[in-house]
Amino acid sequence: MGTKHISSDNSYLPVAWEYREVVAEEIEKKTEGKIFFFDHHDQVAETKGRIVRLTEEKNSGLFIVLNTGSKIRMDKIITLFGKIGAAYEAYNAYADSCMDCMGGYTHEELDNL
Q: Could you identify which of 45, 63, 86, 87 might form a hypothetical disulfide with 39, taking C-beta atoms 3.0 to 4.6 angstroms apart as the criterion?
């Protein structure tokens, strides 16, 4: 499930320098693999490839560009070759959200189960 250009109507959120360092390391190592990210519909998407460069677009944000031509905004990356990306916390919040619910039961009903 790849895409040629990932952008979003959402405002770009600056990423920590650690994520830039990881990208720089992966470019240098010429790592090829899977990248999971939020697409422009805020749906989880994935693509495969090798990062060839990191580029900043004025008013749009910081992007990684893959050897396949795909471009992914840094703040939308969930995992990069198995490493946590800048959007991992947002993704993880979806997984944890059900832990906050009680499935329609009250605390008392759950205690009696």
A: 45
